[in-house]
């Protein structure tokens, strides 16, 4: 149940017109697709599922952010998304 609530929070917020969770808004960030458009609820759901994989790989999926050209984690690469400054 708790995981469903977390999934809905991330998917609804990142696919909303705001394109960000509360933390991303505070940091001045937003999530978009590779063409600069707002992501769909389905893509946001895929991104959330891929975050579970990123974290499950000893956080190596998140560490990829340091080494990829567009600063994408594994979850962004799999979902075709990028996090950018507003």
Can you walk through the features of this model?
The protein has five helices and two strands; from the N terminus they run H-H-E-H-H-H-E. With 86 residues, it is mainly alpha-helical. The protein has one domain (2-85). A two-stranded antiparallel ribbon has the order 1-2. Helix 1 crosses helix 3 (41-56). The chain is globular. The termini are far apart. The mean pLDDT is 96. This is RDD domain-containing protein. Keywords: Cell membrane, Membrane, Transmembrane, Transmembrane helix. The chain crosses the membrane at residues 48-67. It is a multi-pass membrane protein.
Itemize the secondary structure elements and their pairings.
Elements: H1 2-14, H2 22-27, E1 29-33, H3 41-56, H4 60-63, H5 74-79, E2 81-85
Antiparallel strand pairs: 1-2
State Rg.
12 Å
Largest sheet: 2 strands, antiparallel
Query: What is the succession of H and E elements?
Result: HHEHHHE
Strands across the major sheet, in which order?
1-2
Number of helices: 5
Shape verdict = globular
The overall number of domains is 1
Strand-pairing-aware structural class? mainly alpha
- The tally of strands reads 2
Poorly predicted parts: none
Short description:
With 86 residues, this protein is mainly α. It has helices at residues 2-14, 22-27, 41-56, 60-63, 74-79; strands at residues 29-33, 81-85.
């Amino acid at each position: 149940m708790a995981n469903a609530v977390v999934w809905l929070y991330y998917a609804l917020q990142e696919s909303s017109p705001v394109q960000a969770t509360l933390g991303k808004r505070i940091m001045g960030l937003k999530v978009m697709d590779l063409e600069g458009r707002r992501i769909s609820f389905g893509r946001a759901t895929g991104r959330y599922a891929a975050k579970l994989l990123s974290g499950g790989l000893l956080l190596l999926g998140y560490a990829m952010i340091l080494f990829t050209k567009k600063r994408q984690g594994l979850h962004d690469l799999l979902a075709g998304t990028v996090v950018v400054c507003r």
